[in-house]
Amino acid sequence: MLVHFTKMHGLGNDFVMIDLITQRARIDAAQVRRLADRRFGIGFDQLLVVEPPRDPDMDFRYRIYNADGSEAENCGNGARCFARFVRDQRLTHKREIRVETAGGPLMLAVQHDGRVRVDMGQPRFTPSALPFDAPGDRPLHALEVDGARLEIGVVSMGNPHAVLQVADVDSAPVAELGPLIEAHPRFACNVNAGFMEVVAPDYIRLRVFERGTGETWACGTGACAAVATGIRQGLLKSPVTVALPGGELSVEWAGPDASLVMVGPAERVFDGRVALR
Ligand SMILES: N[C@H](CCC[C@H](N)C(=O)O)C(=O)O
């Protein structure tokens, strides 16, 4: 069966969008892995599947699949592309869009400049929210990785993040440490691993080795995780510009009881049709 899809990206974090409101298809982990392959499939970091909401107060539901077929609770760059997609597809004319995700509801606003503002919800630092095996909540946790003792910040943005401060992102050992942190046994559901260089209290550089995908050119929840843990450690002050390999995001956080708010672009690349088994 041929299914229409749209290829999009948020700062080079690339997605395939499939609308299962006007189409029908069965999506499973094996399909996702096949479509994710950049030679034998379409190629993407994540597949985003758009569906009708379960909660009548919501406008849509969208599911997030990493390239390895695992389902994720949240995707910041994906949320911006989702908002652009549902309007481009005339599935809604709204600019303020409420969407259900596995990690909870998100409020999206498509701005007149084309960028999308996402209310990413409140960060949750308690280890059980990730989950992370730790005796209690603190700004920094010790983590033994490959014989080295790292100091990491941990936070849930709906999905789990570990953030390591480094002196220079360009020379950070992302390829070596990323997979080891991602699959560390103290993270029962694995974790996204962020490598943060603090340039100034309002400016960081960031690389993210994403759970289920590997290093991506940008990670929206990773940007929020780095800002939230950095502010908590007294290193950063809101608003913060996050410079990722694919471009910059703006992240604001007014403090513990407030949501993080992220603003950034969403680009449409091409449309296509693909056979789903
Ligand atoms: N790999 C992530 C999901 C995608 C997040 C990222 N692409 C973003 O923009 O937030 C996870 O397994 O939690």
TrEMBL record:
It catalyses: (2S,6S)-2,6-diaminopimelate = meso-2,6-diaminopimelate. The record marks 161, 210 as: Could be important to modulate the pK values of the two catalytic cysteine residues. Keywords: Amino-acid biosynthesis, Cytoplasm, Isomerase, Lysine biosynthesis. Its EC number is 5.1.1.7. PROSITE patterns: DAP_EPIMERASE. Pfam families: DAP_epimerase. Substrate binds at residues 13, 46, 66, 76-77, 159, 192, 210-211, 220-221. It is found in: Cytoplasm. The record marks 270 as: Important for dimerization. The active site is at 75, 75 (proton donor), 219 (proton acceptor). Its main location: cytoplasm. Pathway: Amino-acid biosynthesis; L-lysine biosynthesis via DAP pathway; DL-2,6-diaminopimelate from LL-2,6-diaminopimelate: step 1/1. The keyword Transport does not apply. Catalyzes the stereoinversion of LL-2,6-diaminopimelate (L,L-DAP) to meso-diaminopimelate (meso-DAP), a precursor of L-lysine and an essential component of the bacterial peptidoglycan. Homodimer. Belongs to the diaminopimelate epimerase family. HAMAP family: DAP_epimerase. This is Diaminopimelate epimerase. It comes from Halomonas cibimaris. The gene is dapF.
